[in-house]
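2024-03-11 09:14:02 INFO queue: dequeued item Alanine racemase, len=374
2024-03-11 09:14:02 INFO validating residues
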Amino acid sequence: MDTTKNYPLLEINLNKIADNTKYLVDLCNKNNISIAGVIKGVNADEEVVNVLADGGCKYLASSRIEQLTDLKEKNIEKETMLIRMPMKHEIKEVVKYIDISLNSEINTINLLEKECKKQKKEHKIILMVDLGDLREGFFNKEELIDITLYIENNLEYVKLYGIGTNLSCYGSIKPSHENLSYLCEIAQDIEDKIGRKLDIISGGSTTSLPLLFDNKMPSKINNLRIGEALIIGRDLIDYWGYDLDKMHKDTMILKAEVIEIKEKPTYPIGEMFLDAFGNKPVYEDKGIRKRAILAVGKQDFVNDRDLVPLDENVEIVGSSSDHLIVDIQDSDTNFQVGDIMSFGMFYSNALYLTSSKYVNKHYIQLEELEKEYA
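2024-03-11 09:14:37 INFO prediction written
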């Protein structure tokens, strides 16, 4: 056991995140697509943000205005993009600190114009289009075009920068050549009406990248808002089945300490009711099995089913607020209390682990790797 580190520990490999960033930036550049690096998934961790900025992301994006204002105060020289529509109480800060915001409500846009006039400062907006995922955006094309004409002809400080869409976040609708081509058709109609080119046509997030891999991305799409593929890199490989040898899916590793090892039944004993979160789990009776409890829980990672044990013969059984229970019966490792167990993860885990003050962070830098393999 390494007594120099406090557990649970999130190990963040900046080199692998840099590799993912370089690969995707190069791929997008070849297709005339800029990347807005979405930093909310790592709680705007400064070390990771610097990797994305240095790696060629044109914009830095988040749904949390506090994360973006912090970037400005740290003098990170990238345009910022607020990817959740502004709340009324945020308007002043949006104009002061944010370069671009996504919008779909005319009242909010008018408030932005009013505040821009006070601050004597321009602000760029991207109007969102709902292509069927049923989250944010204009659903009616004519309403959208009317708003673009209103902004173009009546507003002095708020500038129509472009249009965009969101897919697969709420309604799980898959980005396709067809639905993104429709977004491009709408963009063309807007350009014909306002008499100029839109600067940005944002075609979604990580889930739109398969269209690039398959050469099916409509040519008019010139921006993607990417978070998961840069900082985790697992979805495209594990969910979409792409063999991406230039991308890493082990950029972040959770390490937790074993605090109990016991042989126990696999089916709870007594009258079943609800767990601590109001759920009624389903259990399979596998008899007596050897299990370990680790000192980390839902308060840190929220969802245990997306954790991936690095020991393939370890199986996650479940978790409570502060405990992770794993089956170690089939493992070749003779685990002892005090040992450290490691887990890969998906985006949802990283979102919470990077936000938890109870999880320590350790960054792997290039010089550490050189020492390790010297």
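2024-03-11 09:14:37 INFO annotate: Residues 369-374 have pLDDT under 50 and may be disordered.
2024-03-11 09:14:38 INFO item closed
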